[in-house]
Design a protein that fits this description.
Length: 567
Amino acid sequence: VDENGQPIPSASILIKGTKIATQTDVNGQFQLKDIAEGTILVISYVGYKTQEAKASSGMTIKLIPQSDLDEVVIVGYGSQKKSTLTGSVSSVKMDKINDIPVSNLSNAMAGRAPGITVTNTSGLAGATSSIRIRGSFREPLYVINGVIKNKASFDALDPNEVDQISILKDAASASIYGAQAGNGVVVVNTKTGKIQAPQFNFQVSNTFAKSTKKLLGDITTAADELTYQNRVTRFEWEQGARTSPYVQPNNEREFNYFNDKLYNVNDYVWRNPYSQKYLFSINGGSEKITYYTMAGYTNEQGTYKNVDFGKFNLRSDVTAQLNDVISLNLNLSASQQNNNRFFWQGDSADDFNVGDFYRVTFNWTKLYPFYTQADGTPADGVTSFPVQTPLGSFQAWSVIDQVNGDRYVDTKNRQFNPILSLNAKLDAITKGLSAKVVGNYEAVDYMRKTFITYQKNYVFIPKEPTGNRFIPAAPDPQRTNTYTFGQTQPSLGYEMNNAWRYQINGFLNYNRAFGKHQVNAQAIYEQSEFKTTYITTTGYAPTASIIKCSHTQTLLAIELVMLQRLL
């Protein structure tokens, strides 16, 4: 448990002097079998001091946090020193993650604060991680510069533009946000200008990736597949299910046939990805005006071909001290994220798992060529004669064409967010009194385009049906298979979601010390409005005039707009 008696999930429990270890579950409980009473256990968790304890049945271990009591953390709509807090709050040290070459902020959060679990849900380029606080099954509330945002806005941030992140983990610290903060709160403040001479920062990161282990699809060979076929056949023969212990009497000829042939799907669909990141920022100012501006670009390739992610970030923060009492701040941010990948049937629109595509590739047979020439000669590259293997519906389509063909899913996320705030010191009324008014406007555009065509393959025909089963005959135009991917017709689909939101906040703060006593009070007024327009449209071959629409505006106007887009 933590310092407040709350369970700590995913804490590491190690038997000292061994490699035997386990982790606590969501209730902070763990189990180690067949160990003696008094065995020394080593307990560790991010943000807490590592402890040792003697094992006993039903034991309770209270971890002590490693915290700096003078550290200032953002709490709700303000900030406090940890020494004055009664709630549970953790702070993420940004200097530890600014140089990590990640495509989004959530991927950089793993192991950075106690009580937070970060899980990578996919290895595809641009995929984000889920964040859970204290073992919750739902995502926390995200607050950026005092404005409630969604997870997509958090992931759109570049780690270099963030000044501080605080994790509000219990009801006491998150209560200011009400019921929506029941799963914890992630509070983010972005960087602002400093009183200093202009400082320029330019960062370049180039990353090359290569698998350190053999891909599963590269482990087996065609000879291995033939060997396993024989073993299965012999087992079935021994059980009386077959009349012969061999798949083919001339099986040796087939083994020899593959001595100089290697049909490996990964040679066509896999790559060693290359990623790059560029960032430029300037920070400076005087007592009258301070400024911070940052522009960033990230490009990340996937390990599968035709999977790419790109992101642009722009942020500018300017603070003007109008006089001794009033200051004005403008925080302007914009971002765009592009996700491009091949289409995979059965996945959701923005699903970064693309079903079980990896399982499909490493299970793909090595006994049949992927492409042949017009005379049936196995081809070393892509030709006009893709082969459909005779292995049933599981491989009735071409995995290579799936990745390198013309089907795709492209998405764009754009965000524009200006925040204007006015601060006033009201010490003339009473010492420690201040007021603040904040106006926020946010525009979000989401666009997705999905293009799906049919796939035509030539049925594999053995040249020697009673001899070597794997020598292909010439492709027969009368024996083809058209794989539709579950579509009634080839189609081009668009989905658009345009949203805007405004929020106005008014704050009246009182902060004053009386001897050893500190008084801090805050009154808040908040008003917001949100509107979204959602449109989907799909055009089907052979004409683009067949349109399906679901919308919130006039049907005729939408049809005209969408026809213009499709033509």
